[in-house]
Amino acid sequence: ISTRERMYRRKSLQMRDQQQEWLDSPEGQKMIDFRKSLPAYKEKDALLKSLAQNQVIVVSGETGCGKTTQLPQYILESEIEAARGAVCNIICTQPRRISAMSVAERVAAERGEKLGESVGYKVRLEGMKGKDTRLLFCTTGVLLRRLLLDRDLRGVTHVIVDEIHERGMNEDFLLIVLKDLLPRRPDLRLVLMSATLNAELFSSYFGGAPTLHIPGFTYPVRAQFLENILETTGYRLTLNNQIDDYGQEKTWKMQKQTQGFRKRKSQIASAVEDTVESTDFRGYSHRTQESLSNWNPDSIGFNLIEHVLCHIVKNERPGAVLVFMTGWDDINSLKDQLQAHPVLGDPSKVLLLACHGSMASSEQRLIFDKPEDGLRKIVLATNMAETSITINDVVFVVDCGKAKETSYDALNNTPCLLPTWISKASARQRRGRAGRVQPGECYHLYPKCVYDAFSDYQLPELLRTPLQSLCLQIKSLQLGSISEFLSQALQAPEALSVQNAVEYLKVIGALDEKENLTVLGQQLSVLPVEPKLGKMLILGAIFKCLDPIMTVVAGLSVREPFLMPFDKKDLAESAKAQFAANEYSDHLTLVRAYDGWKNAERDQSGYEYCWRNFLSAQTLKAIDSLRKQFFFLLKDANLIDQQHPENCNTWSQDVNLVRAVICAGLFPGICSVVNREKSIALKTMEDGQVLLYSSSVNGSVSKIPYPWLVFNEKVKVNSVFIRDSTGVSDSVLLLFGGNVSSGGLDGHLKMLGGYLEFLMKPALADTYVTLKRELEELIQK
Ligand code: ADP
Ligand code: MG
């Protein structure tokens, strides 16, 4: 045998000894006892046996039964015991960063190790992985990018795809790729793990792969719907109560306070039922989304939640409370409100925690730990707490019935982000979270008739999101024709969505006319940001104004650092206006705020600066670290002068150049500006009239002295809104809007000409003709 094999063998034996040592230690013993108590343990042998005999297996089981933490570990342990420890290479994907990180940490602890030894994780732009790491938890996106570099996943022995029931876009995509890969890699093993029971769908997708179910024990959970909750908690619905936030306004407005409770209750039920009938929200068509969103605005009934929580804290037996909210904004506002409450805000009685994707790990641990006696733990979470994390001591669940869901309106080519009703499967899942340690209670804050009208399962993400990044990935993975490839998905997306995405990629110059990847497209596919943001980064490097552009892109991919506390809105707005500095650009406003913070950090006064200017230090730090990653990636791609990296900032102070690069990146996200006497009319090519979010610096001005605004994103809420924008001039749009590389200058001008004509800017038509002539003359010379 070769030296190499000998080394592997020695290493494998070492790993075996080390594992045994841990199992023999008292802490290891304790851990093993805990692990043996999980339902998955009873199925361990059956699982391993089935995996030895089949290339693909599907495993389903209740959340918390030990799929994520145990199954990958069983495989690792059995490989180590068979003295193959050093050659196995197990990858387990997670749909979310936080679960990849927290699960890896947990599994390392269960093995008595530190992260980065045999167990590691890798998420976008961050990771903890050593040379001996044999079990890697990563996000699905990370595995997809790895496939980009190594189509056959050489060296990988096992792939475990977790939480497939969620039907995320990346997971559905990965399944197509893996299905294609399996015949080429007969030794590769694939495990699909799912929480709910539609395992047959996946099994048949993989040609009848065997399905193993882990029977789990959960205690019964009593479900209460709104009508019972009102009865048990004695909450009285009043006119204009916060409950209206649920949008059942019409219904409740009909009630008179003098009417008896029971009568009111039946009225609610029937009125809601009418609404349900008439809006038919069983379907997910766009129209339905719209009527639902009218029916049901963003925020949820905080006062009702507060009331229910108060009821639990005062009257119910001990046990943690898990509250499902729609999003981070809601969680934060509710947290603020609860903290001001005499009972719920009392830290000697209540431990109030928020559960969020990017929270610090110390805070994370608090969520899992059992609090001291007499202290009531209340965790506010998004639907992430439905399946990917398990908090053991939860006895009470409060379910607002909604989740923010992205959807995609292919007809208008517009992404929508709306709080939508969850599915029956989700509601059941949320309820189940209460029965982990003892019988539980679940408060569904909506009437039973609304629940009855929920759809059974959520629509897969592939069918409700724009497909641009995905199409780019298909091309760079050389998976052939985009539409043909996507037609092999578990459920294929609409042809129109695919067509829109391909058109878009052509417009920005990532694909040529024949749908082949361009040089730009190739570069974009390796940058871990949306295609347009990648394009902006590349242009920022080429035009040597990288610093501000990196800030803009990082800001757009993290979130805004500007805080708007409800009670200090005016102060916060005027702080932001300072940064806006009459540039008519949200993007440049962010650059100013960030640069100021960087300077303050240098004088050790970063926190003070944030405090004074209503900025989130945490977000600024996230932007900062993302910027650093961008820099290295661009350097790797040879877009930055290796000898003189500082050259990439020669023109960073030139605001108009930065504006132009922003325009080049965001095109065709553009609308025309018409300043009217009292208002400003904005118009895009597709939607006609659009509105600015009030948080935009351009949202509150009376006049915008630019003929155009470029924007990152439009979102359909009730009307179409654009979130952030930058004003650009005619000539900047003519020179930087569109794509010079694919159709040549002429094609570029033609396309732009089409846009301009459409938007009917007669004044610009002249400029266009002149510019075109000048440019043509220039070229002839
Ligand atoms: P599943 O993937 O089937 O939902 P997990 O493997 O995530 O289940 O969790 C199994 C059990 O491990 C949970 O019920 C919980 O008791 C325990 N567990 C998981 N993560 C942690 C953690 N970070 N800290 C403490 N216990 C944990
Ligand atoms: Mg899991």
UniProtKB/TrEMBL annotation:
Top-level taxon of origin: Eukaryota
EC number: 3.6.4.13
The keyword Transferase is assigned to this record: no
Heme in keyword set: no
Domain Helicase ATP-binding: 48-215
Stretches assigned to the Helicase C-terminal domain: 304-478
Catalyzed reaction equations: ATP + H2O = ADP + phosphate + H(+)
Keywords: ATP-binding, Helicase, Hydrolase, Nucleotide-binding, RNA-binding
Family, similarity comment: Belongs to the DExH box helicase family.
Protein name: RNA helicase
Part of the full-length chain shown: 143 to 923 of 1081
